[in-house]
Amino acid sequence: MSEKYKFVDGEGIYHVTLTIVHWIDLFTRKEYVFDVLESLRFCQANKGLKIHAWVIMPSHLHMIVSSRDVPLSDIMRDFKKYTNKKIIESIQSTNESRKKWLLNAFSKAALPLKRINGFKVWMDGNHPILLDNNFMMEQRVNYIHNNPVEAGMVMESYHYTFSSAVDYAGQKGLLGIDFIE
């Protein structure tokens, strides 16, 4: 098995990407975004997750993260497991026009896997990339914050609500962040 995309440095800072199965545009509804934000806040408060930069795009989430207490691999596993369940509950209880289609897609994604019973929202893995120098960190922060601009969603990165770009522009965003120094 490849060591290329694993958490190898317990004290390192990583760029991670978590993607919805089939690249489904799930995060076009704020309810599901808030499920993710709630879980990230929990991980920050209870698991020692440090979030240095983040953006939630329609089908994926980018973050620059580190941890002071719990291994990042454990945090990411628990985060995905919890949000998988929470998002399914939200789909089932929300007036979701794509409810049947979404549940069917997430159910089919889980079928070939013995370890998953019911629904699979997230693709396997989180593609961790160790950021071991300032150039890489700055490059990834810019990449994350410019994602909505490149997608044509906003003209300026700090105008995108579901991102830490607003924090880096001197305002207060939706998640507390630990600035990279």
CATH architecture of the domain at 14-130: 2-Layer Sandwich
- By oligomeric state, this entry counts as single chain
* CATH domain class of the domain at 14-130: Alpha Beta
Secondary-structure-derived class: alpha+beta
Tell me the number of strands: 4
CA-based shape: globular
Q: State the fourth-level CATH superfamily of the domain at 14-130.
A: Transposase IS200-like
**Helix content class:** 40-55%
Strand order in the sheet with the most strands = 2-3-1-4
H/E element order: EHEEHHEHH
How many alpha or pi helices? Answer: 5
Strand content: 5-15%
Question: What does the main sheet amount to?
Answer: 4 strands, antiparallel
Q: What is the CA-atom radius of gyration, in angstroms? A: 16 Å
Uncertain ranges: none
Structure description:
With 181 residues, this protein is α+β, with helices and mostly antiparallel strands. It has a domain at 14-130: Transposase IS200-like (Alpha-Beta Plaits). The chain is built from five helices and four strands; from the N terminus they run βαββααβαα. Strands 2-3-1-4 form a four-stranded antiparallel sheet, sandwiched between helices. Helix 1 packs antiparallel against helix 2. The protein is globular. It starts with 13 loop residues before the first strand and ends in a 13-residue tail after the last helix. The mean pLDDT is 92.
Strand and helix layout:
Blueprint: E1 14-19, H1 30-47, E2 49-56, E3 60-67, H2 72-93, H3 99-110, E4 129-130, H4 134-150, H5 165-168
Antiparallel strand pairs: 1-3, 1-4, 2-3
Helix pairs in contact: 1-2
Protein name: Transposase
Organism: Shiella aurantiaca
Domain Transposase IS200-like: 9-147
